[in-house]
Amino acid sequence: MKNDFDEIVCEMASILKVVFTELFNNNEKFYYCTFLTTGEGLPPLISAWSEEALKREGSLYKNADEYREIKWSYADSPYYAFRYERFSHIFSSRPLMATMNEKEWEKEFLFRLNAMETAVRQVDKEGIFSINQKREDICVEVGTMPPDKLTTEITKRLNNPDSLIMKEYMAEAAE
Q1: How many domains does the chain divide into?
Q2: What top-level branch of life does the organism fall under (predicted)?
Q3: Could you tell me what percentage of the chain is helix, strand and coil, using 3-state DSSP and rounding each to the nearest 5?
Q4: Can you tell me the distance from the alpha carbon of 52 to that of 154, in angstroms, rounded to the nearest whole number?
């Protein structure tokens, strides 16, 4: 049964590497990338924003407030759920969370988030987030939809807190 932490991390990292490489090979400069799950621990998905995509999408909005709101919105990104089909099976071998008591549910949910964070950290070490931009110029996030305090904590661990992009993220998007 494929529910071992290391196996799940390895599989996620392998898929992340392929999917992010495909995404980043579009020659856009990305500033935000997220790997997230729902509060129910469903299979994860990625979303991202590039400067170019923000200019394209932002031109559809008539006022500056709306434009600023989409800057960190995973759901409004044209790259929302990019290649989701590659991730759709990821937690299928894990226990069904709907049948768990609160303590079991929390343990399983944290298992899934920890596996996601570990997989992202692994591909980060391989330089995946430096394909079209300097690593310091992209905020890499792991967490939940909608974002919560745990998402912010994980994101702080994954990024240099002194980078300009993290300062922007903390001021504009962090929970």
Answers
A1: 1
A2: Bacteria
A3: 50, 15, 35
A4: 26
